[in-house]
Amino acid sequence: MDDIIDERDIEYARAIMAGTERMTDLADVNGDGKVDEEDIRLIEEIIRGTPPEISVIDSEGNAVTVKVPVERIVIYNHQCAEILQILGA
Ligand SMILES: [Ca+2]
């Protein structure tokens, strides 16, 4: 969609659940391989600015969940800059 997480992302996730939109990796907020009510709850927390944790896909393609706020991060290559952007660092 775009780079802003808002109500339209909730609508899109619900459309994925209803089978009317295509699954995307970003809609699967917790990275468990499916879009469900847990992802909706996490999107709502992100919109409110109160997520207790966030999940990112690491360089090996694994979903990694970290507590928010993120206090430290280790950068080992230039691709990690994208992660910093995602975290707003
Ligand atoms: Ca999910």
UniProtKB/TrEMBL annotation:
<dbReference type="InterPro" id="IPR018247">
    <property type="entry name" value="EF_Hand_1_Ca_BS"/>
</dbReference>
<dbReference type="InterPro" id="IPR036439">
    <property type="entry name" value="Dockerin_dom_sf"/>
</dbReference>
<protein>
    <recommendedName>
        <fullName>EF-hand domain-containing protein</fullName>
    </recommendedName>
</protein>
